[in-house]
Amino acid sequence: MFGAVLLIIDTLRQNCLAFAVTQPVPRRPGRPSVLDTRAVSVGALRLWTDRGFATTGWNDLAGATGISVRTLLRHFSSRSDIAWIGVAPATERLRDALVGAAPEDPPSVVVRAAIVESVSRDPRIHELAPAWLRLIASEPELAATAPRIYRPWIDTLSGYLADRSHGGPAAIHRAIATAYQSATFAALIEWAESGARGDCADSVDRMLRWMDPHLPG
């Protein structure tokens, strides 16, 4: 009798465990686990285009994006971080392209191809790019934050150059990487100001071909 009771209790315990494993965990109410950064950038860019960057605050951004001030501050430490939201993904694309490059390819070809690959070809991004570039170029506050924002991008490229050169001053590698970043941004600005015709990545490729003689190969 006692053994039968233990068997029943054990069976019930196993059923309860199975039920607990198979039942979905209820979602807690509140903010979504993933923030739609593109929606944030679209709403913010439209607001800044209409009213200017310097004259808008967090409450304005909350109204334009439909996201609470508290949630925005949880994800962005400053308004400029929203404006520069596309640089981190571009840095990841640059890093992936450099890592995946064939070791026998000349550095000049690898660097140019990797930078072009880092420029998004997403049509939705292209729609926003001209207005974003004009905003970046015209707002002193955003221009002042550019060195900090682009540091990981420059570090990624200078690290590759150091690995391929097998020596040489680190300052030289960083200077070359900074020059490539400046040329890339100049190409994007030129593309936007000339009417944003064609693919902006192609404009970057044409600009960077002028940089090829400065690297081996």
Automatic annotation (TrEMBL):
Start and end residues of each HTH tetR-type domain: 43-82
Keyword set includes Cell membrane: no
InterPro entries per the UniProt record, alphabetical: Homeodomain-like_sf, HTH_TetR, MftR_C
Record-annotated MftR C-terminal domain positions: 106-215
SUPFAM superfamilies: Homeodomain-like
Example of a GO MF term: DNA binding
Pfam families for this protein: TetR_C_14, TetR_N
Name of the protein described by the UniProt record: TetR family transcriptional regulator
Organism annotation: Nocardia alba
